[in-house]
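Dear Dr. L.,

I hope this message finds you well. Following up on our conversation about the binding site, I have prepared a predicted three-dimensional model of the protein together with adenosine-5'-diphosphate. For your records, I am including the exact sequence and ligand specification that went into the calculation, followed by the structure tokens. Please feel free to forward this to your student if that is useful.
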Amino acid sequence: MKEKQLFIALEGIDGSGKSTQVKLLSDNLTKAGHKVYSTFEPTDSYIGSIIRSIFTHKMEADHRTIAGLFVADRLDHLLNKSNGILQKLEEGYTVITDRYYFSSYAYHGAHMSLEWVIEANRLSAELLRPDLNIFIDISPEISMNRLKKGRTTIELYETLDNLTIVRNKYLEAFKLLQSVEKIYTTDGNRSPEEIATDIWQAILPLT
Ligand code: ADP
Ligand code: TYD
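The resulting structure of the complex is given below.
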């Protein structure tokens, strides 16, 4: 087993291919000798299920309330005693998460002050910064086409206009935090295999 476990966050707009790349990266890391734990946000905890009810229009909430729910969901994701990320790292796992705090900066920063969102997530950032934030950059038009093909319903944030704003907020947040965060951008408008190879080249120096 590898001694140095990593914490890696996959970021991107809806439909950018994050889940696909989490799987491919997990396979590559496992082959390289890592014990891998893959996870995601919003989580499947009670707080995460409230968030999902809002996204699927079963409940309504203001964007600021949603931003607050994500702060709580993320802290539980980190601190939960049984399956929290910090516990998993302690157990020697390399952890890959499909979304982390940059998702909050991009999705909530699109509707309210980005500075507020960063400040509200400060505790999470202080507890654990990713060894690498990987941004799968894809055109919002392509992602909307993918989402329409694969789904019968469209969730709260999944419109072309919103995803365009969210992509721009990601870029703004990366620029703002470039001195404290490790960020790697990969061109997501390619085949899954090409993207996976690119991501693996970025991870290799860290393993
Ligand atoms: P996300 O987790 O970011 O929403 P997914 O990995 O679920 O994205 O991918 C969304 C859809 O696009 C799925 O149907 C998936 O099979 C497809 N897909 C993923 N990556 C690519 C790619 N590089 N090229 C074309 N289609 C892709
Ligand atoms: P997700 O299940 O990853 O959707 P997808 O696979 O389509 O990318 O995320 C659900 C939604 O949650 C997505 O629209 C982004 C949003 N989100 C936020 O608004 N804030 C956050 O902090 C996170 C982690 C996700």
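In brief: The domain at 7-206 is CATH 3.40.50.300 (Rossmann fold).

With kind regards,
A. P.
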